């Protein structure tokens, strides 16, 4: 797994935009202005939004990820060596869908459907 693969997956989500609000070298992915994934400047893993605190805790307890630094407890950081591209597609898709579902109805309606 790598930053490039994460960025390629995220770029395929409708309305997803990459920015660097935390400074150069940080790739922060947003939909509707809300963050769903971030790769830090060190590029050792991806922090992503989970549907809830329990899901994040389950991933941490299973040894898949660690608490995402600087983010709420519903976020988890997945080190690149701990997952493959199929798992990345799934986890990033869940993060994107979680944030997208929380957007106002008008913003959601303006976005095309996410391809499978």
Describe it.
The protein has 116 residues and is α+β, with helices and mostly antiparallel strands. Helices cover 35% and strands 22% of the residues. It has four helices and six strands, in the order αββββαββαα. The protein has helices at residues 3-11, 53-61, 85-101, 105-110, and strands at 17-19, 27-31, 34-39, 45-49, 66-67, 75-79. It has a six-stranded antiparallel beta sheet. A hairpin with a 5-residue loop joins strand 3 (34-39) and strand 4. Helix 1 (3-11) crosses helix 3. The longest helix has 17 residues, at 85-101. The radius of gyration is 13 Å and the shape is globular. The mean pLDDT is 93.
Give the mean pLDDT: 93
Q: Would you list the SSEs in sequence order as H and E?
A: HEEEEHEEHH
- Residue stretches low in confidence (pLDDT < 50, at least 5 long) are none
Tally of DSSP β-strands: 6
- Strand numbers in spatial order across the main sheet: 1-2-3-4-6-5
Number of helices: 4
Largest sheet, described in full? 6 strands, antiparallel
Q: What structural class do you assign from the helix and strand content?
A: alpha+beta
Separation of termini?
20 Å
Helicity range: 25-40%
| Rg (C-alpha, Å) | 13 Å
**Percentage of β-strand residues:** 15-25%
What sort of overall outline do the alpha carbons produce when their principal axes are compared?
globular
Fold topology:
Blueprint: H1 3-11, E1 17-19, E2 27-31, E3 34-39, E4 45-49, H2 53-61, E5 66-67, E6 75-79, H3 85-101, H4 105-110
Antiparallel strand pairs: 1-2, 2-3, 3-4, 4-6, 5-6
């Amino acid at each position: 797994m790598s930053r490039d693969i994460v960025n390629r997956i995220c770029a395929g989500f409708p309305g997803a935009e990459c920015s660097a609000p935390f400074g150069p070298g940080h790739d922060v992915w947003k939909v509707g202005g809300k963050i769903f994934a971030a790769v830090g400047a060190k590029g050792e893993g991806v922090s992503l939004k989970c549907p809830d605190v329990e899901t994040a805790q389950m991933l941490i307890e299973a040894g898949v990820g660690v608490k995402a630094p600087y983010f709420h407890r519903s976020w988890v950081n997945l080190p690149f060596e701990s997952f493959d591209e199929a798992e990345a597609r799934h986890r990033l898709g869940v993060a994107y869908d979680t944030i997208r579902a929380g957007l106002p109805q008008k913003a959601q309606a303006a976005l095309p459907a996410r391809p499978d």
